[in-house]
Predict the structure.
Amino acid sequence: MSNYVKLLNNLEGLGLNNIKNNIDTYLDLMTSGEKSIIDALYELSNLEIKSKQEKAKLACVKVANFPFLKEIDDFDFDFQPSINKQQILDLKSLRFIENNENILFVGTPGVGKTHLATSLGIECAKHRYSTYFIHFQELIAQLKKALAENRLETRLKHYSKYKVLIIDEIGYLPIDNDAANLFFQLISKRYERHCTIITTNAPFSSWGEIFGSATIAHAILDRLLHHSHVISIKGPSYRLQSKINYLDSSSENY
């Protein structure tokens, strides 16, 4: 067995597949004098490093529980002119994380709140910030279950640890007083420590009805809004528009 074959086997055994897949190209470049040995080794090692970094990013995205993988570039800002695109791009820089600021997307169903929240979450995960996405009702169910099983503190610590926690769809269903208190405890633990991204279809003035108490709602909002960016989206529904376009297209075929 030649040393060349042994080298390929060693590279495969070490998991250096990018070097293995490109070694022939660089051997030819070195033989022809187009690349020095140092330059070739540097570029090969750089390919491997970039590949491992990309895999690490994808792993962070995978464990974040996103409902879909859509990024900022996939968002149709022309369809929602009420959104300040520059503000969203500034949030994409992730300065809000260093300042422990919250982001609240407010608007009627279908206007793109979850898309934008998820897109920012993906950006956070790509930069190796611990990120997790959860629907509000699922979060409440998890906290109530933990309370019943006498492990609430452990569960609160679990959701408090994430650098960025995305809580989707506050306001679709009201919750009882116990659940409101549990949510308040979580928001209090995260306050000024980590970032929370919220999507809601309900104006803040109606949160008292959602949480069954104006006092608790005020306390929650006080902590969420203190250091925050509020993006109010006023526009048509993407889902409704897609349905209308589909129906229009179908009718034209008859």
Notes: Strands lie at 102-107, 131-135, 164-170, 195-200, 228-233. DSSP finds twelve helices and five strands in the chain. Residues 243-254 have pLDDT under 50 and may be disordered. The radius of gyration is 24 Å.
